[in-house]
Amino acid sequence: MGAYDEKKETCGTICLKYLLFTFNFLFWLAGGAVMAVGIWTLVEKSDYISLLQSSTYAASAYILVLAGVIVMVTGFLGCCATFKEQRNLLRVYFVLLLCIFLLEILAGILAYIYYQQCLPFCYQLNEELKQNLKETMVQKYKQPGEERITRAVDKLQQEFKCCGSNSSADWKESAWILSSQSEGRIVPDSCCKTITNHCGHRDHPSNIYKVEGGCITKLENFILEHLKIIGAVGIGIACVQIVGMVFTCCLYRSLKAEPY
């Protein structure tokens, strides 16, 4: 009977070991995916960051990269602890999971409190953001030393199919449009639905993008969607961590205390 119980306990431990290893491998992959999204955001969408006064978008990308690295390191440590079957490593792994989980909960609470406090000022902040983007476009576009801003504006207008911060009329105040360098253009060529040289001479809706709310509305929606994705990823990882902590506790209890 004792041999049967020992064999049953061993089988249970093996099952827990492989379940926890599978969890940690998936956890490690999830960390890699999160880090990849953060790096992609910084590399592919970094031009948009130069157009924004707010650092929220850039900070969210760096948070994704950092979170991905921490999750990958934690997942690797969990795999090592599982295969070595060392209770000390399992304790460290459990504490790391718990700390990450508590930080995620704290960040969520702070974000909710911040959102509630800022809600009455959202309209004012939105107007300030519109004004900042408009000033960046009309004052820095095609100006010496502002090549990055110029590329960002052109990319923004083409990718989001829009023209101007609030509307195409914003370009009437542009330092470049008012200069001889524009060669008589009314809007930049990047406003055109089909880009050709000097296509910005006509601002008719058949030629350029005329979107209600302008580029700022589309940019805001883009950023909000990304922030929602970050929030969803955080919630998903937190839920998975609970499963991992349960598996860790079960494996820890099933292992015999190590001799000292």
Number of helices: 7
Q: What percent of residues are in strands?
A: under 5%
The unreliable regions are: 1-8
Structural class: mainly alpha
**In oligomeric terms, what are we looking at?**
single chain
Q: Classify the helix fraction into a percent range.
A: 55-70%
Radius of gyration: 27 Å
Instruction: Kindly report the average pLDDT value.
Output: 77
Number of strands: 0
Question: H/E order of the elements?
Answer: HHHHHHH
Largest sheet: none
Taken from the alpha-carbon principal axes, the silhouette is elongated
- CA(first)-CA(last) distance: 29 Å
Looking at this protein, list some descriptive labels.
disordered N terminus, 260 residues
Task: Write the topology of this structure.
Elements lengths: L1 H43 L1 H4 L6 H29 L2 H32 L3 H19 L6 H13 L54 H41 L6
Helix pairs in contact: 1-3, 1-7, 3-4, 3-7, 4-7
